[in-house]
Amino acid sequence: MAEIANLILAVTTLVTLFVTVWQFIYFKKIELKKDLKKQAIKVASWTDGSMDKDGELPLILVNTSDLPIYNVFVFLVFSKESESFDELEGCILHFEFIDVLPPGSNKIKVSGRGNSSGGGHDLPAILFTDSDGNGWYRGKFGSLLNINDYILKINDFGISAPFPNSRIERVKHE
Q: Which of 29, 46, 98, 107 could connect to 169 by a Cys-Cys bridge, CB 3.0–4.6 Å?
């Protein structure tokens, strides 16, 4: 009888140990994913939708982290097109490039297509590298995808270096 009790105790101990290790690993992965995005979630862009007389759309480009971001591509995507980065080939008609974007708010202009009769319009999307060297795609509706090889992929889209550095204007928010 003591042998059965010891066997039950050993099995219960092993199951408990297995579940504890599994939970530790699971929650550690969640923590690492959050840590990976810590700077990227603080980068965004938007527009009020009013194109200027030169066919350019003024955008606000914000980095609220304490560190700069690098190799920033800002481009417009038609609102009716896919949110997926992999389906952007042929959709990036014009882009602006900033080699180093410091923390803060900036204004930049990107050439656009305007509005369509079907209700579609241009929305900004961003590709950038955070200070830890991780590549990111912030989609037109705010999705955030880790894409470390985005420069190689946009080369496949027909966009290749050298990338001319765009002029940005610092913006103060109240």
A: 107
Are 71 and 24 found together in one domain?
no
Entry pTM: 0.73
**Each residue's pLDDT tens digit, 43-82:** 999 987 677 777 788 888 999 999 999 999 988 887 666 6
- Of 44, 114, 125, the closest CA to residue 87 belongs to 125
For residues 111 and 60, membership in a common domain is answered with yes
Residues 121 and 105 placed together within one structural domain of the fold: yes
* 136 and 111 within one domain: yes
Q: Do 76 and 128 share a domain, yes or no?
A: yes
Domain that holds residue 130: 42-171
Q: Are 30 and 47 contained in the same domain?
A: no
| pLDDT tens-digit map of 116-136 | 656 667 788 899 999 999 999
